[in-house]
Fold:
Amino acid sequence: MVERVTHAYEGPLAVFLIGLRVHKPWRVGVVGSAVRAMPRMIVELERNKAAAARGEAESLGYLGSRSTVHGLGTTMIQWWRSVDDIYAYANATPLEHRPAWLAFYRAAGTDPSAVTIWHETYAVSSAESIYAGPAPFGLAAIAGTVPVGRRGETARERIAAPGR
Structure:
């Protein structure tokens, strides 16, 4: 029988979805400006996460992310400790987000219909998950796993469990 596990994360949680849809791939300057920005931000966030885990920096609250590609677009799912942490990162002038956003706006101004950038932010009051198989995905891949029974055998029990 395949072992069933759930995510080990406990505490406040925010989920941030951010995506790019390309409408005019031939507008290389606009598309490139949008595409180049995200990898730099993720490198910065992952470095901070590692430094915070070693006690060398204050955590920005970023827990991890996963990207998906679809047609002429991409969506990144990010897990954060809180919505406030997301906003703090987005508005911190010495970090990568602010300059990347300004550069994108300058490039997009040359052809506003070339790409769509979008995001959705969710403050999560309760989270439930289950994974069966050799490789957990999503929040469990970031936070580790615990046996399902620790939080409840059913989805209803797990979503009501204290600490998520």
About this structure: Residues 115 and 164 are 37 Å apart (CA to CA). The first helix runs from residue 28 to 53.
